[in-house]
């Protein structure tokens, strides 16, 4: 079991301030020493300093629940071009999996909060309540319970004091700007910070998450292969979220299944996230495999909709037009679309053909036609190819940024790709994707079922 996370504003600010000040001094020392080094030795020293900074960033964020950990998870989608390529992927993976290493708090640490939210002790509000949590993440943990009318539910409880800790972390976020700029020179950190503040602020309020969850459940209700557990609105509150308990095979088990089942699972994951974006205009920012369950009836159940953005219809249409321009190999349209969407701070600095080449390379897994079985090695190779200093697109990538509305879309794509590689799923990903960005006809039996559902 873990001790309660520090919530003191001073203590948390000291963590951020100490990290930034210490690394600032070390960067200054590296720059001073580089003045006496050859260009090659200076580049190597700068890379070593960037790697050390990245490791310290992971260490500090991993010790703090709340927004600090969530900041790390979102940063996992950013290309940290200053970190040596040999260490970059490990760093991003570590950031992405911060949520996996969170031990739950003992029941006595959350007992008072539960009583405050429910208006009565948990033992009175439920006929049964398991005191030991079965899952924990950056902002809360989950307990199994049985309601008074006999329904099995999952009770997500926010950590006591975490609201104040998150507020402090978000105020302190600007302290990290100098470090993040050194690790990712092309990133618009102010836009990133604004998006993080808005999204994490919403995630902290379980009533907002419940609204997202209910919207997702209504949108996918009755779907032939996707299931969202209903929310218990009477038992849910600002710091407690109660949903129907799902039982099924977790991701580690799914990875051991035969090819046909893994392929089906992978196609469902792809269709769920791209379908959510297309039909509901919602970008789910946390498509983590820990939030999927392969149910016994063949459906896949999905959880956790705290980190979510409703994308403007015009912006989403712009993203669709960008994908269509890439598919047509229309370099001029690609550049114009990227500029209009906000990816190019100074459009005149970019060559259209180079931008097209970069995007075709980065999204080749779902832009190249034909069936393809993805693996973790494929994911690592493509990410390395897209972020290596040896890439012909490296210099232009450093001058690009991620628009706020695209942040969770890009995070969704990245983590879905990683999930498909982990589960070793095979499909014609281009044919599947074309159903969403080009309104192409269904390409698989699952696609026919999905199309019929959304035509209701």
Automatic annotation (TrEMBL):
Tagged with keyword Transferase: yes
Record key words, sorted: ATP-binding, Kinase, Nucleotide-binding, Transferase
GO MF annotations in UniProt: kinase activity
Keyword Lipid biosynthesis tagged: no
InterPro entries per the UniProt record, alphabetical: ABC1_dom, ADCK3_dom, Atypical_kinase_ADCK, Kinase-like_dom_sf
Annotated ranges, domain ABC1 atypical kinase-like: 98-336
Family affiliation: Belongs to the protein kinase superfamily. ADCK protein kinase family.
Protein name: AarF/ABC1/UbiB kinase family protein
């Amino acid at each position: 079991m873990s001790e309660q996370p520090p919530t003191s504003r001073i203590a948390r600010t000291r963590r951020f301030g100490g990290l930034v000040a210490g690394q600032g001094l070390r960067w200054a020392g590296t720059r001073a020493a580089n003045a006496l080094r050859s260009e090659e030795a200076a580049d190597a020293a700068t890379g070593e300093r960037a790697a050390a900074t990245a490791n310290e960033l992971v260490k500090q964020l991993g010790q703090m629940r709340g927004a600090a950990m969530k900041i790390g998870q979102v940063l996992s989608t950013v290309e940290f071009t200053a970190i040596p390529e040999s260490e970059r992927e490990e760093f991003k993976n570590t950031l992405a999996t911060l949520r996996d290493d969170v031990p739950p708090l003992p029941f006595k640490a959350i007992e008072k909060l539960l009583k405050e939210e429910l208006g009565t002790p948990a033992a009175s509000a439920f006929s049964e309540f398991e005191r030991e949590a079965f899952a924990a993440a950056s902002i809360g943990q989950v307990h199994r319970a049985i309601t008074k009318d006999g329904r099995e539910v999952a009770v997500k409880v926010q950590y006591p004091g975490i609201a104040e800790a998150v507020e402090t972390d978000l105020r302190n976020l600007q302290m990290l700007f100098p470090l993040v700029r050194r690790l990712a020179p092309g990133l618009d950190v102010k836009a990133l910070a604004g998006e993080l503040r808005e999204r994490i602020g919403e995630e902290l309020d379980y009533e907002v998450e419940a609204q997202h969850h209910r919207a997702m459940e209504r949108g996918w209700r009755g779907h032939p292969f996707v299931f969202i557990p209903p929310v218990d609105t009477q038992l849910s509150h600002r710091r407690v979220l109660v949903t129907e308990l799902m039982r099924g095979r977790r991701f580690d088990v799914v990875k051991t299944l035969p090819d046909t089942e893994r392929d089906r699972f992978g196609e469902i994951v792809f269709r769920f996230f791209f379908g959510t974006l297309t039909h509901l205009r919602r970008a789910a920012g946390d498509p983590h495999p820990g939030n999927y369950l392969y149910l016994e009836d063949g459906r896949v159940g999905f959880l956790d909709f705290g980190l979510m953005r409703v994308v403007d219809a015009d912006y989403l249409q712009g993203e669709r037009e960008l994908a269509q321009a890439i598919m047509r190999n229309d370099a001029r349209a690609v550049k114009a679309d990227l500029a209009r969407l906000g990816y190019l701070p100074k459009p005149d600095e970019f060559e259209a053909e180079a931008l097209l080449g970069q995007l075709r390379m980065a999204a080749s897994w779902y832009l190249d036609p034909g069936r393809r079985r993805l693996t973790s090695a494929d994911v690592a190779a493509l990410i390395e190819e897209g972020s290596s200093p040896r890439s012909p697109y490296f210099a232009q990538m450093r001058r690009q940024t991620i628009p706020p509305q695209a942040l969770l879309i890009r995070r969704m794509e990245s983590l879905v790709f990683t999930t498909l590689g982990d589960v070793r799923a095979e499909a014609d990903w281009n044919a599947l994707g074309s159903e969403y960005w080009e309104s192409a006809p269904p390409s698989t039996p699952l696609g026919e079922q999905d199309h019929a559902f959304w035509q209701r």
